[in-house]
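Q: I'm writing a short explainer about ABC transporter ATP-binding protein for a general audience and would like to include a description of its predicted shape. Could you first generate the structure from this sequence?
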Amino acid sequence: MSAAPPSTTAGNGGAPDAPALLSVRDLQTHFRTASGTVKAVDGVSFDIQAGSSLGIVGESGSGKSVTSLSIMRLVEPPGFVAGGRILFKGRDLVSFSEREIRDLRGRDICLVFQDPMAALNPVYKVGDQVIEALQAHQDIGGRAARERAIELFRMVGIPAPERRVDDYPHKLSGGMRQRVTIAIALANEPDLLILDEPTTALDVTIQAQILDLVRDLRRRINTAVLLITHDIGVVKEMCDEVVVMYGGRVMERGPTAQVTGAPRHPYTVGLLASIPSPGMKGQRLNAIGGSVPSPLRMPPGCPFQPRCPHAMPVCATMPSLRRTDSGSLAACWLYEERA
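A: Of course. Here's the predicted structure. Afterward I'll give you a sentence or two in plain language.
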């Protein structure tokens, strides 16, 4: 898929026209299976400026999490990065050796997973796991590392941090465990924090607390945030820019206010229409008809065409990303003639 170059205009926290902290260019991540090759990510491009926030939104199976794992170089066989570049501070992470990428993870780029219980080691105290993250990248003694762990627990809102550092993960609630994983991720003050569905397993009240925490931490330490979520409502609250993905491809991309305020791709329109509102009490929820196609049997051209109310014969060919009248970029033939 050819795409117009991502905008160099920074979100909050970055200078206009400054080089991007992270530039993903035509990323392709595939999985070889007995039934064929799955193109989980198929030509994705976007930029994240230093100190800014970008959300990747889409249904399950759209390629969001595989994109984040590709950036971290955590895609395991039979998966592999088949093409494209992942430029972090101008260096292509795809070409990094295993040792180089291991040094980068946890120091410059950190990933917070969806399930904190799976991310934490159940046989080690949570404080020891923060200490391990600190000592892996810093020359710091045990006592100083413990004090820093307590400070981090306090910063992420864990009550009685002096006591909690000696707890095991099973003694903490889901919300507290997620705060621990965020503390571990922030231990070395990374330039980029990737959050992969960080609130999915939590109740609504705790979700709001975690999102408020991320927003506050971003302001305090100027960490750029890449938020992976299926909830476009969360992106509206949290992110400067948004990438809407479907079937491994980018459907729409641009400043969040433009994309959510005046959506142009039919898929983005459907996602926003499916958000419930207080005024809908007693009414049926809106939903996008059909389901995400099997990655082994993607339709030719635009992957959304079987579910799209505006599908045309030309949709059998994938359009490029084009500038729309709202200012966003949309991969849709509805805007090809305008371009």
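A: For your explainer, you could say: Residues 73 and 101 are 7 Å apart (CA to CA).
Q: Perfect, that's easy to follow.
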